[in-house]
Amino acid sequence: MPRSRNTFSSWRRRAVQRAVHVGWEWVQRTGAVTAEHPGRFRFGAMGTGTRLAFPLGTVFGEPWIHLGSHCIIGEQVTLTAGLMPDLDLGAEPILRIGDGVVLGRGSHVIADTSVTIGSDCYFGPYVYVTSTNHSYDDPHEPIGRQWPRMDPVSIGPGCWIGTGAVILPGARIGRNVVVAAGAVVRGEVPDRSVVAGAPAKVVRRWDPVEGWQPPIRTPAPVPIPDGVTPEQLLALAEWEAETEGAGETA
């Protein structure tokens, strides 16, 4: 015989669940770091409109981290300058992030020496950028105890870095480059190219005369016509959803 449902218990659970969600949203809003509300962090520079989502990842060496304007730093993103906290790294910034940069959730940017990310770069989640690599010259000494090698990293403006990509020390990525998900990048990458693989190789390149080579297989997206309002786009999306639903029930 089915058990009778405890209506009061169910109502109480829903109320507690709602309270937890509302409380967590408040914590996320309050814990976010901005130029106006930096909390305990003292970045060397932080532009207007930039926001570090809460909860943060590991952040240290912030006096040597310069963040541009209107950047979006996702949850659990690690930003570090120097090998460890509380070091004096000199007068110049170590990690420079340009305007309008988006760093996806769980990404890491480890700047033990200079790392520069140009404006309008978009990173998917869990991207790893580092200017330091372990050395293993001595085969008898544990690798973790050997002094690491450092090499500056630069990522040009307008790049798209796919989910899970790894940017290794010494990488010099040009302007408007696509780095495929999971790629492992080292060395120089030319402007307006697409790289993929581990190690990453150029798989497509822009030619001023012939365009993308090899040609892009998918058709170009149709731009939104001038004068179309957000309300019209929302109404169109709702109409398409209703049309699809009617087609499924027909």
From TrEMBL:
GO terms for molecular function: acyltransferase activity. Gene3D superfamilies: Hexapeptide repeat proteins. Keywords: Acyltransferase, Repeat, Transferase. Its EC number is 2.3.1.-. SUPFAM superfamilies: Trimeric LpxA-like enzymes. Pfam families: Hexapep, Hexapep_2. InterPro entries: Hexapep (IPR001451), Hexapep_transf_CS (IPR018357), Hexapeptide_acetyltransf (IPR051159), Trimer_LpxA-like_sf (IPR011004). Belongs to the transferase hexapeptide repeat family. This is Acyltransferase.
